[in-house]
Amino acid sequence: MFEAAQLEHFIREGTSWAAARHALWHESGHTLSDEVLGRFGQYFAPSTLRRIRLVAIPSIPNPDFYSKLASLGIRTPLDFTVMAGLTLVDTVFIATERADLSTAGLERLLFHETVHVV
To answer: What is the three-class DSSP state of 68?
Structure first.
């Protein structure tokens, strides 16, 4: 079990990791296509859809501080390496090694990740 100080430390580490990944990749991400904007427009606000950036990467890495957790005998809370997608604020990471890359598969994943943007 975490002590309060450890928990606060790892919350700061996780927040810092997420903010750094978002800052690093958001501007270079791709906007949604007009086709996707049209189909998703009946479910999500246009302003939300326009903010989203897509980033394709082979796999989603675990945060560096996970090795510290392991050294303390603490189980990894979430294994990002097995995820097909991850949303950090308004940047959607698609793990090309995990995701169903068919048109329908990507649309399902993107819809799911858009809910996280909201």
So the answer is: helix
- Please tell me whether residue 25 adopts helix, strand or coil conformation: helix
Strand 85-88 and strand 91-95: pairing? Answer: antiparallel
What's the pLDDT score for residue 78?
86
CA 61 to chain centre: 10
Q: What is the pLDDT of residues 1-36, one digit of tens each?
A: 557 777 787 888 889 999 999 999 999 999 999 999
User: For residue 107, what pLDDT is reported?
Assistant: 95
Condensed to tens digits (0 to 9), the pLDDT of residues 72-90 reads 787 777 899 999 999 999 9
**What are the tokens at 48?**
């939300």
Nearest alpha-carbon partner for 88 in 111, 116, 60, 69: 116
